[in-house]
C-alpha cells in the first residue's frame, strides 16, 4: 500500500524555506526533495491557502515562508493539507449487516479514533521551530550531512 507522504513533504519544504534567504522556486524545492515540481506546487497550494507560505511570480519569485516557526505546529500543517488519512487501516465493510463485522468495526473504530486523537494531540505540541532546532543540532553533530541549501547532494 502506498503511503501518503504529503505531511512529511510539506514539513520538509517548510524547513527548507525557513533556511532560505530568498524565495525558492518549485523547481529548486523539487530538486531538494527528489520529486517533480508539480508535486511541490500541489503541496504548496494548501499551505498558501492557509497562510503558511506565499508565492511570487516572475524573475526572483518563488515560495517564501510566511508563518511563525514558533507558533506553527505539525497539526497546523496537517490541517492545511486537508486532514489526510493518518492510518491505512480501516473497516472491510463500513455498512455491514453482519453482527460479527459490526462488533469488529466498533472495536477497530474506537481504537483508531483513540490513536488518532493521541497523534493529533502530539502534532499540536510540536512546532516548526522544534523541527528547525533538531535540524540544526543534527548539522552540528554531523557536518558531513551537508548544508541545508545544498540541493545537489540532498
From TrEMBL:
It comes from the Bacteria. GO terms for cellular component: cytosol. SUPFAM superfamilies: Winged helix' DNA-binding domain. One of its GO terms (molecular function) is DNA-binding transcription factor activity. This is Transcriptional regulator.
Amino acid at each position: 500500500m502506498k503511503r501518503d507522504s504529503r505531511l512529511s513533504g510539506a514539513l520538509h519544504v517548510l524547513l527548507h524555506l525557513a533556511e532560505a534567504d530568498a524565495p525558492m522556486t518549485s523547481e529548486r524545492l523539487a530538486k531538494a526533495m527528489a520529486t517533480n515540481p508539480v508535486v511541490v506546487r500541489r503541496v504548496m497550494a494548501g499551505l498558501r491557502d492557509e497562510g503558511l507560505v506565499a508565492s511570487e511570480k516572475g524573475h526572483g519569485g518563488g515560495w517564501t515562508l510566511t508563518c511563525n516557526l514558533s507558533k506553527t505546529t505539525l497539526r497546523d500543517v496537517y490541517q492545511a493539507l486537508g486532514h489526510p488519512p493518518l492510518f491505512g487501516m480501516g473497516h472491510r465493510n463500513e455498512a455491514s449487516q453482519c453482527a460479527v463485522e459490526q462488533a469488529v468495526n466498533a472495536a477497530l473504530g474506537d481504537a483508531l479514533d483513540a490513536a488518532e486523537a493521541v497523534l493529533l494531540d502530539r502534532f499540536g505540541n510540536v512546532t516548526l521551530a522544534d523541527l528547525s532546532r533538531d535540524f540544526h543540532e543534527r548539522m552540528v553533530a554531523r557536518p558531513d550531512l551537508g548544508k541545508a541549501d545544498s540541493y545537489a547532494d540532498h
